[in-house]
Amino acid sequence: QTVLRFSDYGPNRGARAAALEWFAEELATRTDGAVSIEFHWGGSLLGGRDTLGGIASGVADIGTVVGFFTPKELELYSIGDLPVANSDIQTGMRAIYDLSTQDDRLTAEFDAAGVRYLTNYTTGPVELICRSEITTLDEFQGLKIRASGPYGDTLKRLGAEIVTMSQADVYQALDSGLIDCNQNYYYSMRAYRQYEVAPYVLELNWGQNMSFGIFMNPASFDMLDASQQEILTTLASEFVDYVADAMTAEIDDAKEAMVAGIDGSSITVTPLPEEDRARLLEVSQEAISDWLNRAGDPAAEVLDAYQALLAAGGSEGQ
Amino acid sequence: MRDLPTEDADPDAVSATGIERFLARIAAAGLFVMAAIVTINVVSRWLGRALIPDDVYLVQELMVLVILLPLGVVTATRQHIKVDLFTEWLPSRGKVALAVLEHLVGLFFVGLLAWAAWLGVRKAWLTQDYYAGVLDIPMWVGHSTFLLGIALFLIRLVVMLWRDLRTLI
Amino acid sequence: MDPVTLTGVIVGAVFLLLVLRVPIAYALGGCAAVGLVLFFGWRPGQALDLARGLRPALSLIEANAYSFVHSYPLSMIPLFIGLGNVAFHADITTDLYRSLRVLLRRMPGGLAMASITGCAGFSAITGSSVACAAAMGRIAVPEMLRYKYNPGLASGAVAAGGTLGSLIPPSLLFVIYAIFTEQSVNGLFLAGVVPGLLSLLGFLLTVFIWCRLRPQDAPGDDGEMEPGAGRFALRGLWPALVLFGLVVGGIYFGIFTPTEAAAVSLVIALAIGMARGKLNRENLMTAGLDTVRQTSMIFLVALAAKMFTSFISLTRITPMALDWLKAIDPPFALVLIAIVLFYLLIGMFLDSIGILVLTLPFTVPVMASYGVDLIWFGVIVIKLLEIGLITPPIGLNIFVIKSVTPSSVTLATVFRGAAIFLLLDILVLVLLLTVPALSLWLPNSAF
Ligand code: NA
Ligand code: NA
């Protein structure tokens, strides 16, 4: 009877928490109750920033890791946050999963950090929610946008003024006009009720944040017997599809609800024009180059491998 | 919450060294700088754009200064929060004996903290990780300040233990 | 050793060390560290392996301690403490008291009412009850004694008034409660406003009744009003009003986060003090040093408590206790009364921060399991801690008042005086317990 301690920084609510509960139930069922998971939600064991180190040292056996917190230690894995053309959830997730499990350079990075990669999450595609209607990239000039990471860098290159703040503070900032737009995902716009203060969404469908996964302590993994390890890794792979489906459903549902209106507030969605989309990806390339320069030698090959996986998954999907 | 006992509140208070007092002054300055950073950004954001980049990260770094650097003075002047109700009746020799116990427990706790802090510095240095933002502040900066504060705290505890042991024996 | 025994031993060790005068931080941190090493070193079905336990324990200690210190939201703690200290050195407190004296001079026991209202006003710009009692005690008690007030009334009024410090925002206790229960600081601050004013009303009513029954205890302030005192009165009020409006209004209307409110109001207090020539290099440094020393003390306790909470969380003792409670299934009212009595009892012996960090890991899950609004529970806990400040044998406010008043006033006098104020205060507590809307209406209506 093995109990694995799972540390998650978030509350026990929403689609991601539900997916984790599914993961735990499946694991218990498939191992006939021999392996179970005990959750420590809301950072009660380890905060988001401390989870990677905490898994490596054995404070937690498993945990949710956000790559953004350790940009150097998980430098190659932060490829998942790059604004590449991967906005199809299923394709993107499968590509980052395959890359993280099969690419030696990534595996070496995880080894060095003292952790073992299990599986992945996603935020879904990046969109822009705004106070006033924005329809083209030209209108980004001088616009105050809350954004982060390479997405923020790219928006800055397009002339926007970038503001950093936590998602929890965005509602007030949009309401008071402190910022004009916010980089966000549909489900999170709904969760933070941003549609109440910003009725326009420019649908960028631009990349995803996927440097965002589940990692395990290697010694805890080795303590399981061979068949249990097999069950765990198979389940981890299925988790990718489960999360992709769940997130797609969640995002569609959130979008639909917000367009229809919630308590009298609704959003108007404008898709980004095709020619602007091409330009967006072109400018994104500069943020990608920055990452390549920072990450040094192996990064270019990893990026090629990632692009190849995305292309393969994309064509299969269609 | 605790009131502001002045430095000579405890009759057995030991006067802090010049270095400890200097560090406490740096901490006090850090407090005002912190207030200034946040205020400047609140005001400048209303007027247009925030002037100071990565204000959240800068405040975090300053917090380490503000909290860790005065620990020497606090310990020397015996201001740590404690419950003295149950031992008020003891003769002063008994109280010194308990002070020795206090320092021993303190040394154990702070010693472990120092060890843990050292591991934190080492890791921050080895990974060269940073807080992703405009300034990309390296993580080892804050971790080193933390270790410095804890190390001086530890030394102060050894001195206190030595003094109280001498009084006792 | 199973988790239950381990937790029992560790909690017992903490209390033993506390009784033996070991600082709360050392006792909590040291015991938590031992508990963590033992917990991690003890894989079920295997022998104890201390070496294996050490690595995760150190890692968790580091993560807890450093993340707690290296924190943006928690910077509001030193900022709010700084605000109180700067306001004191800038004479904002003294002016406030003088103004209220003029305004309330016709009321029965006007000086006592001014002292209590002054405490409320100072509460609005400082985060700590004891700081309130100390500041107002130094100014107001000697003044009342000079006018031949009954010493019990004089000292009791300020001791009781001081207890408003943590209920009326800003409040350090609310910030600490918010961290350990993951509730919003905004919500808690706003929730404290009405209960704070209600408590103030209770204290004023006590003075009113007291002075009607025994007018000889509060001889009138025989009106040595200087010309222009009325205008002066208003001038003395505005700095405190501006600072309070900034914090509460700013949070209510969503203009500021609490951290921003803390920083901005500290800067404004500094500006007011300098503009009036009250702050110089020297007392500015004193205010700063007092602030960082108090901050340091508080954080050391809180980060040790964070380690202790992690240890408790790891042992899963609270889910087990909750299952046990669920099996018995006592009615909610009974549990609530038990918890209230528990806090009143422990409030007799322990310091407020200590109580909060020691008890929250146990009481909050119990309340949460009954679906209680944790913002409301926060108000109740803080109110109970405030009451503990003036109950014997350990009443921190009483000691502080005693230490700043002439030695002719005995400790027993202060306790007796404060006890009279407790009568109506208990009524306020019952009201808060039975009508949660008193606490929750304001935060729920905020923007
Ligand atoms: Na207050
Ligand atoms: Na008490």
TrEMBL record, chain B:
Family listed: Belongs to the TRAP transporter small permease family.
Keyword Cell inner membrane among UniProt keywords: yes
Subcellular location as annotated: Cell inner membrane
Keywords attached to this entry: Cell inner membrane, Cell membrane, Membrane, Transmembrane, Transmembrane helix, Transport
Domain Tripartite ATP-independent periplasmic transporters DctQ component: 34-166
Membrane topology (UniProt): Multi-pass membrane protein
Major location category of this protein: membrane
GO molecular function, one term: transmembrane transporter activity
Membrane spanning residue stretches: 22-44, 56-76, 96-120, 140-162
Quaternary structure annotation from Swiss-Prot or TrEMBL: The complex comprises the extracytoplasmic solute receptor protein and the two transmembrane proteins.
GO biological process, one term: C4-dicarboxylate transport
InterPro entries: DctQ, TRAP_DctQ
The protein, known as: TRAP transporter small permease protein
Free-text function comment from the UniProt entry: Part of the tripartite ATP-independent periplasmic (TRAP) transport system.
Top-level taxon in the UniProt lineage: Bacteria
Cellular component GO terms held in the UniProt record: plasma membrane
Taxon lineage: Bacteria, Pseudomonadati, Pseudomonadota, Alphaproteobacteria, Rhodobacterales
From TrEMBL, chain C:
Organism per entry: Lutimaribacter pacificus
Identification of the protein by name: TRAP transporter large permease protein
Pfam families: DctM
NCBIfam families linked to this entry: dctM (TIGR00786)
Membrane topology recorded in Swiss-Prot or TrEMBL: Multi-pass membrane protein
All residue ranges annotated as the TRAP C4-dicarboxylate transport system permease DctM subunit domain in the record: 12-438
Its job: Part of the tripartite ATP-independent periplasmic (TRAP) transport system.
Top-level division of the source organism's lineage: Bacteria
Recorded GO MF terms: transmembrane transporter activity
Similarity annotation: Belongs to the TRAP transporter large permease family.
Record note on quaternary structure: The complex comprises the extracytoplasmic solute receptor protein and the two transmembrane proteins.
Keywords on record: Cell inner membrane, Cell membrane, Membrane, Transmembrane, Transmembrane helix, Transport
Residues that span the membrane, as ranges: 12-42, 63-90, 110-136, 157-180, 186-211, 232-255, 291-312, 332-362, 374-399, 419-442
Any single Gene Ontology cellular-component annotation: plasma membrane
Subcellular location: Cell inner membrane
InterPro entries xref list: DctM, TRAP_DctM
